[in-house]
Amino acid sequence: MRIVILAVSFLAAAAPQSVSVRNTAFEGRPALRLSSGAMDLTVLVQGGSMAAVVLSSDPGKLNPMWEPARMQRELGQTARASGGTGHFVCVDGFGPVSPEERAAGLEGHGEAHRQQCEVLFAGVRGGAAQVSLRATLPVVQEIFTRTFTLRAGEQVVTVDSELESLLGFDRPVNWAEHATVGSPFLEPAVTVMDLSGSRAQTRPYAEPARGALRRRLESGADFTWPLAPALDGTTADLRFAPTQLDTLDHAAILIDPARRLGWVTVLHPGKRLLVGYLFRRAEYPWLQYWGHHPASGKLARGLEFATQPYDVPRREAIGLGSLFGAPSYRWLPARSKIGSRFLLFYTQTPEGMRKIDDVRLEDGRLVIEDRSAGRKAVLAASGAAL
Questions:
Q1: How far is 5 from 358, CA to CA, in rounded Å?
Q2: Where are the alpha helices (DSSP H) in 168-296?
Q3: How many Å apart are CA 41 and CA 154, to the nearest integer?
Q4: What is the pTM of this model?
Q5: Which of 101, 125, 383, 385 is exposed most, by the fewest CB atoms within 10 A?
């Protein structure tokens, strides 16, 4: 008997509607909301963090991003404003600081996400909603600029960034996109993360996890994404959040060196919602997976594409030099600028999509494919070149 698998394609596109950018607030903090008619993106003026993304077609308006303040309220705790909301940028620095850096005023994960930005532009330009923000980083003496562009009727955001050195010597920099999803979008044993991964390593550690959480994975063990060695002798499939909710995971995944563009997606099959990123591997050769699984069920998962494998102090990242043949930092030349570009996308998916095998740009469209199920989602992505 011959079995024929039919490819089911789902074109996620809304009829063009009026695009807009308007002032708003998120958890009491000033923000700007970009609307395409198909999707809304909320950007904090503090650090340019992407705090929320929702689809116009979703009656529940589910935001997949990590919302720590909301989670605290739901647990009956006092909500505290935090720079670490949703997707925030870690530049220049990804991880803890040395005692000397702390004494000089530098805090963990870099200065950028803590700065109140200057709004250079917020409005409609060329038929697209656009916001451009700039922040001066006083300790590291750099200027960080970030521009968000969301075109009419589309569900793909182009994020362009520029880092400028104000100093007269070359230096290595640490830069990570701390993209994080959270509950209820992140559901144990249901929501799945896929990426263009290859060689990987569990984070080396000598101490127990902080607080009530315990480590689930072996220390410093090499593996191939997504199957990692666990402390109990089993193999953990890191695509899924575990059902035992008192654990903490870290792993570094090398983005496939055979690809020019890397990608990562998080899919909730039951809700038929998928969020993801497409980025240049030359700018972000690494992705750190951070799994935070407290007993409260308020889960968070970091999909942190970066210049280095782990969020560690500057000296450690630069001293490492490379892992698996890929560098652990990026150079910023004297009084010069370097940049990056990546895409954020959020979409409904066709019925039956369970796993993502590929994400690619084709003729102004973003194609997201589950080959095993013969399913694909296609998003309009005009002008979204990488």
A1: 18
A2: none
A3: 12
A4: 0.94
A5: 385
